[in-house]
Amino acid sequence: MTDPKNVAHHYHSGHLLQRISDACKALDLTPPIPPGVLAPVDEFHIGGRLATQPFIEALGLTAESRVVDLGCGLGGPARYVAATTGAQVTGVDLTAEFVETGRVLTEWTGLSDRVTLVEGSVLDLPLESGSMDAAYMIHVGMNIADKDGMAREARRVLKPGGIFAIYDVMQVGEGRMDYPAPWASSPDQSALASPEVYETALTAAGFKLTERIDRTGFARQFFADLAAAQSRAGGPPPLGLHLVMGDNTALKVQHMVRNIAGGLIAPNEMHARLTS
């Protein structure tokens, strides 16, 4: 069972906002900043904005939708949803520094009227039952051992017929993951599970799985393109995920890429609808 305090500690740096602010200054970026400009640093998942766009489009959200982002991180996807659909988005994350930094980034992008970020657990959401039209989770389940509880809590806050979409790194082969990884410094912070475990949890909570998409090919191409771009540039750009992951970013990414190539893990999407 993963310890929430240990998980939050993995993501905490103590100076994240300052690092992002310094990077923005280096790029002559001052508020108001278009949300998409921050995507290299606030979309903390495989593929970044390239993955977020089709994932969110599949939800069919409108300006009348109320949406919850489970494990919102810095709120990049939440701001993307608000900016592109007009929906009201509530993001919930365990890491206080992510929430505090994300609120500032939301102010910088002028989206505070449509995006609310709060500190909390996805296993005990600070939301009323039946208050949301849709819920989504992007690269979060790897830190949550209780997949059944996660699915039940998503069900609790959704209206009948509500949508729950997941984009997670899942275990698809036999073997041991190499750490540190982007989501965990050590095995005790990680809760990798197979797609079948997710599907079982969703079904038990009252969801019907409508689509499952293997994103392995997409991930391999994304990391190949990223490596080529950094090679041409002589290193990462000023604004990038190394600001979030810290000094051992290269090792974390190397481990993840190696385990994807080896068939141990793969990013998968799941889309499900509440049946009642």
Report on this structure.
The protein is α/β, with parallel strands linked by helices. It has one domain (4-274): 3-Layer(aba) Sandwich (Rossmann fold). It has 11 helices and 7 strands. It has helices spanning 4-11, 16-26, 39-42, 49-57, 76-85, 96-108, 147-157, 195-205, 216-233, 242-245, 249-261; strands at residues 66-70, 88-93, 115-119, 132-138, 158-171, 207-214, 265-274. Strands 3-2-1-4-5-7-6 form a 7-stranded mixed beta sheet, with helices on both faces. The two termini are 30 Å apart. The model has no long low-confidence stretch (mean pLDDT 97).
Keywords:
about 280 residues; alpha/beta
CATH fold call: Rossmann fold
Which strand order do you get reading across the main beta sheet? Answer: 3-2-1-4-5-7-6
What shape does the CA trace take? globular
Share of β-strand residues? 15-25%
SSE order, one letter for each helix or strand: HHHHEHEHEEHEHEHHHE
Secondary-structure arrangement, i.e. CATH architecture = 3-Layer(aba) Sandwich
Write down the CATH class: Alpha Beta
Radius of gyration equals 18 Å
- Within CATH, the superfamily carries the name Vaccinia Virus protein VP39
Topology:
Elements: H1 4-11, H2 16-26, H3 39-42, H4 49-57, E1 66-70, H5 76-85, E2 88-93, H6 96-108, E3 115-119, E4 132-138, H7 147-157, E5 158-171, H8 195-205, E6 207-214, H9 216-233, H10 242-245, H11 249-261, E7 265-274
Parallel strand pairs: 1-2, 1-4, 2-3, 4-5
Antiparallel strand pairs: 5-7, 6-7
